[in-house]
Amino acid sequence: MQIDLRTVSIKPLRHTFDNIARRIGADKPASRYQEGTLDMQQTANFHYRPTWDPEHEIYDASRTAIKMADWYAFKDPRQFYYGAYTLARAKQQDTAEANFDFVENRGLASTLPESLRDTVLKLLLPLRHVAWGSNMNNASVCAYSYGTGFSQPHIYQAMDQLGIAQYITRVGLLLGDVESLDEAKRAWTEDDTWQGLRRYVEDSFVIKDPVELFVVQNVVLDGLMYPLVYDTIIDDVLSSQGGTPVAMLTQFMTDWYAETKKWVDATVKIAAAESPENKQILSQWLTAWRDRAAAALLPVARIALGERTDAVMADVVQQFNARMAKAGVAI
Amino acid sequence: MDMQVAKKKLGLKERYAVMTRGLDWTPSYQKMEDIYPCIAYEGIKIHDWDKWEDPFRLTMDAYWKYQAEKERKLYAIIDAFNQNNGHLNVTDARYINTVKLFISGISPLEYVAHRGFAHAGRAFPGPGPRVACLMQSLDEIRHAQTQVHSISNYNKYYNGMHDFHHMHDRVWFLSVPKSFFDDAITAGPFEFMVSIGFSFEYVLTNLLFVPFVSGAAYNGDMGTMTFGFSAQSDEARHMTLGLEVIKFILEQDPANVPIVQRWIDKWTWRGYRVLTLVAMMMDYMLPKRTMSWKEAWEVYFEENGGALFKDLARYGITMPKCAEQIALEKDHLSHQAWSTFYNYAAAANFHTWMPDEDEMAWLSSKYPESFDKQYRPRYEFWREQAAKGNRFYNKTLPMLCQTCQIPLVFTEPGDPTKICYREVDYKAEKYHFCSDHCKEIFEHEPEKYVQAWLPVHQIYQGNCFPEGTDPTAEGFDPLAAVLKYYNFENGRDNLDFDISEDKKNFDEWRGQATKNI
């Protein structure tokens, strides 16, 4: 049964802004993602060149080797504008809070076998520095890439990575203490185990091409590290040894990766589908950085996996290759 | 039985430190100057980034939680406002012209702020300022988007806003706010922070953001008012960041003081020139006024700003010297601006009108020193002419100031009967300025300001006609071609309010909503 509420109805002159109508092909109602994203970045008649980069305009598509006829070909499948983004994260944050409460209130941290707790501290805590590096790299892509369709998700990614660094810090404080964080930082800067990964991260800091940086950070490093650490080691290997509380504390990262992967895949796919040249460049970047990242993660994985490390790593790399093949880049 | 030793609980400050600064390390595989290449060239010396005092301590989980709550409320109100045709409840349809000015002049700047703070956050080696800048970058995209979303519904019913991105990059007077932010984002990261973080957010926000939002509240525009109120707590964070930046830079090295002083002088003046648009909005465009421009300047700059600069005196910072000239202009600024737009109403994306008798009386009472003497007679004459069918729309392009890009319409400080002109010869070219302050800004960085994309020059050079236009064709109408380039609908987006489609529709729709027709 329907009830009919009457409102005063007047006929609008138009349904959306002209730029949106030009892009979606007609003057029809547009989504908030579209109105908040399309053409948000200025494109014409810039007044001055950046004093920090006089070779380029303020926003300049030629900062990257990737060429697009239209940078708004990039669309976020999550349709994240600020409001949708914060609502999604607030919900995940609620779950994370409940999980931390559950583990804390029941004293589950102290039920972890000591060796397992040590493994978690050794493996997980230095990763807060990796997340911090990702925060900086994603800020970089947001600042220097072209078109809001491409740049916008990177500010969300940057802040997500800061959030992840902070969640790892909380895990450290819950399973250990401030000294555990200090020890992890020492290991990160000094121990052989971590130097390959730290070099990878620091080398990424000097990459100037924003799309390459997206590949190095969000596609390759996250694409190998998250399945390895969160999906395989924590959710699978450690859980079977009594580490389920740890999986609860890192649920945010697991869920986050499953979600952001969709955007990462879509982005690679769109860039690769644009031209054979793009595909070629992406393939070079992906191959070179995948090999470096896999090598750098090997000693890290060994902390938890011991003898099984090589087999698990090979598996993770194979899954990654399959994922990229599906996105249109054979590597 | 083992007893768990109670862990030392971290204080708020310590906890925030491990959540931010603790994440950082000193890199060794790449050189600091390669990772942070833009940190030295401005001459600012930072000896210890750890001396940075976090102006607020917000971890990401708390940020998401608070902000999501605000978003939920904001969009619920926007939806209700739209569903209920809230736009028909504004005081009168003239008000909507302030919304046009806002979305085409101001909202695109929020977006530049978003990218600029991402750049500054990336550029600073200190984790404290980086986190604060990136959080502001995230807030600024919020502001840009919530403004577009709130105003989207106005665009459906009223003219002038339909292609605001396109217009922002092209329309002559919109180059004033655009060049301001282009100037800031192309400066080094420290200057960007002083220009936007301090001068704009801290010193001038109350004169920009607040008048628009209060104007909306006074004129029944709940949609615009709500995003303003929703942004208030973000703005409070941005203001504390702006102040902390200044104090941090000044405390790091005495050699920073003169550099910062020059930036404060420059950006106060640059910001004030942009506020010309706000001044006329407050005095002429709001059907129900909140306060006069002059009163706002006295309260928010002379009193509040005066106290601020007293506080900064201990670092050796003084009140920007342009404040003296601004004080002389405060009786004239809004009137000279509105007169200019009334002249060029054919080339603006909003409507103009002459104030009615009540409004003239209000202006006389707020501007006893100047209004009746200099401006009322002019308006009465124009009104008479319009009544006789002689409404004059100026089609001659004005000379622009090379720095602020406002036409040379301002008068000499202290003499409201004489237009102020300044000029400089630089590399065999002549450059023109509206004031000594704009001239000085140019002289300090001529290589930057000679690049300015001046709309009038560009029109004369033939760069502002749609592609394929032949200016040599017989009967070529340059103004019509320029309006096409702007994507204006001549007769709908521009000209006087009285003859506008906006007025006609609003009256008709309001009639439908309030009477039984």
Short description:
The complex is a heterodimer of chains A (331) and B (517). Chain A has helices at 18-24, 32-37, 82-105, 114-124, 127-144, 148-175, 178-190, 192-204, 210-238, 244-249, 251-274, 276-305, 309-326.
Q: Say what oligomer this is.
A: heterodimer
Helix amount of chain B, in percent?
55-70%
Task: Report strand % of chain B.
Answer: under 5%
Low-confidence stretches of chain A: none
Can you tell me about this structure?
- The complex is a heterodimer of chains A (331) and B (517).
- Chain A has 331 residues and is mostly helical.
- Chain A has helices at residues 18-24, 32-37, 82-105, 114-124, 127-144, 148-175, 178-190, 192-204, 210-238, 244-249, 251-274, 276-305, 309-326.
- In chain A, helix 5 packs antiparallel against helix 9 (210-238), helix 9 packs antiparallel against helix 11 and helix 9 packs across helix 13.
- The mean pLDDT of chain A is 97.
- Chain B is mostly helical.
- Chain B contains 21 helices and four strands.
- The longest helix of chain B has 31 residues, at 127-157.
- The mean pLDDT of chain B is 95.
- Chains A and B meet through helix 2, helix 3, helix 5, helix 6 and helix 7 of A and helix 1, helix 3, helix 4, helix 5 and helix 6 of B.
Provide keyphrases for this structure.
heterodimer; A: mainly alpha; B: mainly alpha; two-stranded antiparallel sheet; two-stranded antiparallel ribbon; 4 strands; 3% strand
Describe the secondary structure blueprint for this structure.
The complex is a heterodimer of chains A (331) and B (517).
Chain A: H1 18-24, H2 32-37, H3 82-105, H4 114-124, H5 127-144, H6 148-175, H7 178-190, H8 192-204, H9 210-238, H10 244-249, H11 251-274, H12 276-305, H13 309-326
Helix pairs in contact in A: 4-12, 5-6, 5-8, 5-9, 6-11, 7-8, 8-12, 9-11, 9-12, 9-13, 11-12, 12-13
Chain B: H1 12-19, H2 32-35, H3 60-83, H4 96-123, H5 127-157, H6 164-168, H7 175-186, H8 189-218, H9 222-252, H10 256-274, H11 276-285, H12 293-312, H13 322-329, H14 333-343, H15 357-366, H16 371-387, E1 411-412, E2 415-419, E3 422-426, E4 429-433, H17 436-444, H18 446-449, H19 455-460, H20 478-486, H21 501-514
Antiparallel strand pairs in B: 1-2, 3-4
Helix pairs in contact in B: 3-9, 4-5, 4-7, 4-8, 5-9, 7-8, 8-9, 8-10, 8-12, 11-14
